[in-house]
Input
Amino acid sequence: MDEDQFWSHALGAWIKDCICGPSTSALVPETSWRQAELIDTPVKFEELCDGFLLNLIFFYINPESIDRNLVLLRTTENFSSLDTPTKLRFFHTLWKNLHNFYKTKLNRLIIMQDLPDTLSIVRNPAPGG
Output
C-alpha cells in the first residue's frame, strides 16, 4: 500500500479528519503536534510513525489514557526527531491504553496473537515498508 492509498482508506481519512484543518475544527490542532514549517501542508504517513500523534488522538477517545510524562517529553523535544527507544515507548503506551480501554470501558478482552511490528514501523516509517 502506498501513501495515497493509506490516506484514501477509512482509517487514513478518519485520522486526517481528526488532525487537519483550522485549530477550531481539528480534534488535535496541528500546532500541538507538528513542526511550525509543516503546518497547513499535507500530512505524511511517517508523521504517525513515532506514536505520539496516535496517542493524542486516543486521548480524545479516552481522556484517562494520557501519559503526561510522554507528552512532556515530546514538548521538551520541541517536535524534533525522536530516538527509537522513545518512539517505542509511545507505541507501548498506545497498546497499553487500547488494552485498558477495551478491558475497563467496554468489558472486552483483546486477544492478539501478534502485535504489529512496532520496531519496523519506527525504523522504516513508510506505508507497506
Notes: The mean pLDDT is 79. DSSP finds six helices and no strands in the chain. The chain has one domain: 3-123. The CA atoms of residues 11 and 99 lie 19 Å apart.
